[in-house]
# Entry
Amino acid sequence: MTAELNWESGEGLLGIDDPAAWDAAYERGERHLGTAVIGLAFNCPLEEASPRIVRAMRLPDAAQRGFAYTAAGTAARLNGELTPELYAALRAAGPGRRSIAGYAIADTMTFVPFRRLPFWLKGRTIAAYVADRWDIRRLAE
# Structure
C-alpha cells in the first residue's frame, strides 16, 4: 500500500501500513504526518504505531498534532488498551476540556476496560461518572 502514498496532498495516507515509510517521511519533514499516523493506528500493531503517534504529538503544525491525538483515540478504540508511552503523552497534554488530548482521553476512558487504565485515568473516570450522576439528579429535580 505504501507505493500509493502522496505526502504532498495526503491522499492514501490513511492506508499506510509501513512504519518505516512514516519514519522516512518524518525525517524528510513531509506534510500530513498526523494524517498518516492515523493510518498506522488502523493498520499496524499498537506496539509499532505507538512511538510514531507519540512523535506526531510533538509536530509543529497544530492540525497535524490534533490528528496524532485522534490516532491515540483510534488506537484505544481498536486495541482496548494503550502503551505506557501513549498514556504518558495523554497525561502530559492534560485532561482539561480545552486540551488537545480531550477527545483521545475520552475515547480511552470509553474503550479501555477500567481495570487496564492507569491510576490517574481511573480517577478521571470516577470523577466523570460522579459528575454525570450529579447532573442527572440535578436535571430531574
Q: What stands out?
A: Residues 94 and 119 are 15 Å apart (CA to CA). The mean pLDDT is 92.
